[in-house]
Amino acid sequence: MEREPEDDSLFSAFPLGRRAPLAKEAAVLRRDLALVHTDAIAASLMVGTGETYIAAFALALGLGDIVAGYAASLPYMAGAVLQLVSPWGVRRLRSHRRWVVLCAVVQAASFAPLTVAALYGSLSATGLLAIATLYWAAGMAIGPAWTTWVGTLIPRSMRSRFFARRTRVAQAAMLGGLLAGGAILHFGEHRGFHLYAFAALFAAAGLARVWSAWLVGHQSEPDPLVEAAPLAHGLASPARVPGNRRLIAYLLSLTLGVQISAPYFTPYMIGEHALHLSYGGYMTLIAAAFISKILALPWLGHFAAERGARRLLRLAGCAVVPLPALWTISNDYSYLVAIQLFSGIAWGAHELATFLLFFDAIRPEERTRVLTWYNLANATALVTGTSLGALLLRDQGLSFASYALLFWISASARALTLPLLAWLPDAHRKALPAIGILAARPSAGSIDRPVLADQPDSPLERPHQGDVPVSAPAR
User: Fold this and answer.
1) Of the chain's two ends, which shows fewer C-beta atoms within 10 Å, N or C?
2) Segments of 279-375 assigned E as strands
């Protein structure tokens, strides 16, 4: 009779259940858990040192404030469209793992031209947007395939604890990359070679993604062609899912209002026409929002469990309305840090409440296809808002006054969404979903997205009844 494998540091928090797997299978599971866990570190380091600073790189090249704003939004739209090709890519390669590794390698390769451009000090606006589009397209195309695949690797009985721990590690790695990137840029700025500092950051981000691809490639694939049922059987519009119309209308309207100003916070902070902060000051403001969000999430989760996600979303909806307007009151740096700390809490509440409401209102078998279409609709609203902001800046000219007007218009557009919060369904779930980081943003701390792992169980999974589906962090 086989004895149960001894717990190690990774396994200690994850009970195997009443019937332990065979020793060989347990060893494979341990290896996969470690690889998936470490991959979160590699992917988050890539985001913290690379994607976060693309808009700042556009400004360093002299491409202008509007191009920097589009670099943070237009490529995301292309990525949301191209994520729809994932089922075709998986079928073509006859493997989820091969598709994920291919996309990760492509995403890593997107940093090569950015590194070269930083070394040479030249890149056109079209070239920058094309590279950023390749980055986002490859990254978002990973999501559906990875979500399906990871559901075959991690037994359902382990998922909640495992992905909660993985999320915390990813957040720490993201913050570490963000702080290291800001420190490197600050050092380069004071030594007169800030473009070389960008080259070092993009090279590090590319290597981190290569490391991530290697980690993914060494994970198991119990069933290479396990069907991604939610995508393979057609994509239903989110509006057709009962109980979601009002929630989706609110979220898309808010995205449009937010994006009127959000892509232009980086130019406002470090551009020549407004605050003109150092890279160190810029990094500190981004980190402040990110840290406050991380620290607030446990309390926000308790509030949602006790008072309901709908009430949390209403409070968050009111809190995010004045955020851009607050930037026009004073340029004192301590005041700006305080705004960012409050911003991180407000957006953390908004994102958590949104996830809980989505999870409660959408049936498990519909979640991936609904969220896929929602991502596309959200990206459309994002680009629309960015374009409205660009038109206003072009019309008014780049100045502190034009940015102030832009921020007040964004705050007004956010306020117009508040009536949509009046009749929203509440969430009854007590368990909190794991949250995955897509990118950091100066005005919101980070962009997060739930990607679900409600796929067929692993062969190693013990018998269970009535398990609540658990989300897996986004890639």
Assistant:
1) N
2) none
Q: 316 lies in which domain range?
A: 26-453
Whether the Cβ atoms of residue 176 and residue 168 lie closer than 8 Å to each other: no
- Please compute Rg for the chain using Cα positions: 22
What pLDDT was estimated at residue 88? 82
Of 379, 105, 422, 369, nearest in space to 237 by CA = 369
* CA-closest candidate to residue 45, choices 215, 207, 255: 207
Average pLDDT over residues 104-125: 95
pLDDT beyond 90 at 406: yes
The two three-digit tokens of residue 269, written as one number:
């902070």
Residue among 157, 122, 88 nearest 461 (CA): 157
User: Residue 452 belongs to what H/E stretch?
Assistant: strand 447-452
Q: Are strands 471-473 and 447-452 parallel, antiparallel or unpaired?
A: antiparallel
In a domain, 280, yes or no: yes
**Cα 136 from Cα 128, distance rounded (Å):** 12
396: number of Cβ within 10 Å:
14
pTM: 0.75
In a domain, 3, yes or no: no
Number of structural domains in the chain: 1
CA 14, CA 49: separation in Å to the nearest integer?
Answer: 31
CA atoms within 13 A on the CB side of 313: 27
Taking only the tens place, the pLDDT of each residue in 148-192 is: 788 778 777 777 678 778 878 888 899 899 899 989 998 998 888
